[in-house]
Amino acid sequence: MNRKLVWIDPHDPLPPTEQALTPDEGANGLLAAGADLSAARLIEAYSRGVFPWFSRGEPVLWWTPSPRMVLMLNEFKISKSLRKTIRQALEDDALEIQTDHNFPAVMQACAEPRLRQSGTWISSPMIEAYSDLHAMGYAHSVCVMREGRLMGGLYCVSLGRMVFGESMFSRAPDCSKLALAALVAWLRNQGALMIDCQQRTDHLASLGGREIERTEFESMVHKLTGLAALPWSSAPPNKRDLAGI
Nearest CA to 154 among 66, 214, 71, 215? Predict the structure, then answer.
């Protein structure tokens, strides 16, 4: 029996995650459609391990896949080539790693066309919504800079000691990995445990990402989002963190 997708209005709460569609139903983790991308809605969603993901012309779609791809911080893998890149970065005075530098520009860079991709889900409404979250202190960027130019980076959502990875970009080899390595090292020092990676990719798996069941993921989200917020503004990730990775 095929279940109908739940449609929600702005005043409706998201349904229980147990109601999400299964892989056998053709949309692993699709929970609901509709409503808005307000900051309140996004915070509600992320606090429950739910995220929006939709293409141009579609309604807002809310997802909670199972299994869930995560990066446990103590399982982050550094290849020999990345280790070399980190050493070079630490010796390169012209290269910087900055946190929360021009957040919308980082999102725009993540939205740029990529090889073998026909489009992007990072639309103008998404950039506006997450920029609002950034202004409230819930969304952050970590980027690699050279002489004022964005070379690579990522953006994420952060609630308590839980970090939800959203997207990465590189304009030079390994620059997104440098940003991620700095973030991982910093998060370890702050007592965080994992980064949500949403869905499995070979790239994430090569960095140490693995899948866990939704129930385990939600238990960790509940625990980590209830802890004190990370010090993004007072002691942000920077290039010095690479020395500890």
Answer: 71
Task: Tell me the CATH class for 6-65.
Answer: alpha beta
The whole-angstrom separation of Cα 45 and Cα 151 is 31
Span 92-124, pLDDT tens digits: 999 999 999 999 999 999 999 765 555 567 999
**Pairing of the two strands 139-146 and 149-159:** antiparallel
Taking 90 as the threshold, does the pLDDT of residue 1 lie above it? Answer: no
**Spatial distance between the Cα atoms of 85 and 72, rounded to a whole number of angstroms:** 22
What's phi and psi for 142, nearest 5 deg?
-130, 125
* 85 pLDDT higher than 80: yes
Question: Once rounded to an integer, what is the mean pLDDT over residues 23-41?
Answer: 94
Rounded to two decimals, the pTM is 0.95
Which of 3.40.630.70, 3.30.300.30, 3.30.420.100, 3.40.50.300 would CATH assign to domain 69-244? 3.40.630.70
Q: 4: left (phi > 0), else alpha (psi -120 to 50), else beta?
A: beta
**Domain residue ranges in the chain:** 6-65, 69-244
